[in-house]
Amino acid sequence: MILKKIPLWVKLSFIVVVVFALVCSYVPYVLYSPSIYPIEGERTYLHIQQDETFADVVANLQTQANMARLPAFLKIAKVIKYDDTVRTGRYEIYAGMNYKTFVRVISTNQQTPTRLTFNNLRTKEQLASRIATQIDADSASIVNLLNDTVFILSKGLTPETAIVYFIPNTYEVYWTITPEQLFNRMEYEYRNFWTEERREKAAAIPLTEIEVMTLASIIEEETNLSKELPIVAGLYINRLKKMMLLQADPTIKFAINDFTIRRVLNRHLETESPYNTYKNKGLPPGPIRVPSPRSIDAVLNHTKHNYLFMCAKETLNGEHNFAVTHAEHQRNAQKYREALNEQKIYR
């Protein structure tokens, strides 16, 4: 009886208030409650590529995470117009992430840096391929930049020395970094690596920074034993000072683009190439691999001795015999050839 006496407008007002209260309480619930759970592990990373649409983002997100109240998320994105302003990038997703945090991160381009790592690489193509697996740029665009004479010359380098700025290490960069931005970052890291102490040691040899890194690339190909690196570096520095041909087998392998051969033969030594150190005096035009800090420092802190010759040991265990005279070297080389023949290694 009492309800019948309540005016209609009061009833409608009450309903509106209740609905409004429910909406007001639901929106914060949707925004702040845990809503995203990676399918594998506690966290993962959503990569949004160039030209991807909001539909692509949602599809990729659903393949990587379970999404609670997905329709509500779609409405939130529409209200803030994110569906029209998708931002390229790499974004961290973690278990229990709420939509408010997620939307803020992707809409304001709060990318999570990626750890870029590269080492043990010989060619520009290998370097570009390794980097391209860790950032958005493709390997072709990176190689093209390293071969862009105008750009490289503007950096004080040549296409032959373009890789010297890429000192192996782990760097934090954004996934969306462009090849040009990456090159500039590597130049910055290179400048930091070449401290005053390192520059002074290079000048005392005397070699330029690039010459040090070129020599470091050769000794790194000659041996992977840390204890031998400064010895081999000292040997080649001795040859440079005496104006002798370096006669470094790794430069021949680089010249013929075949790093698999175990025996450098006479026909290989006839290869016409500025990298053939059996024909050309001094160092080659640039590094024959991306030299590691360990090898660079081995050159700067090379062992002082009288060795002029080296040859792999007949034990074939990666160690070398070093010699002062050519006659002694010939005896070492003969033992090595006999060991190769015994193992039937002819190339």
Tell me the span between the first and last alpha carbons.
Answer: 107 Å
Total number of helices: 16
Report the count of strand segments.
9
Strand content: 5-15%
The helix-and-strand class reads mainly alpha
The string of secondary-structure elements, in order, is HHEEHEHEEHEHHHEHHHHHHHEEH
Sequence stretches where pLDDT stays below 50 over 5 or more residues? 10-26
The overall average pLDDT, rounded, is 90
Major β-sheet, in short? 3 strands, antiparallel
Major sheet strand order: 3-1-5
- Tell the overall outline: elongated
Please identify the oligomeric state. single chain
Please tell me the total number of domains. 3
Helix content: 40-55%
Radius of gyration: 31 Å
What does the secondary structure layout of this molecule look like, with pairings?
Blueprint: H1 2-5, H2 8-32, E1 34-38, E2 43-48, H3 54-64, E3 65-67, H4 70-79, E4 89-94, E5 97-98, H5 99-107, E6 114-118, H6 124-132, H7 139-146, H8 149-154, E7 169-173, H9 179-193, H10 196-204, H11 209-222, H12 229-241, H13 249-256, H14 266-269, H15 293-300, E8 309-312, E9 320-323, H16 326-342
Antiparallel strand pairs: 1-3, 1-5, 2-4, 6-7, 8-9
Which tags fit this structure?
single chain, 347 residues, mainly alpha, 3 domains, three-stranded antiparallel β-sheet, two-stranded antiparallel ribbon, 16 helices
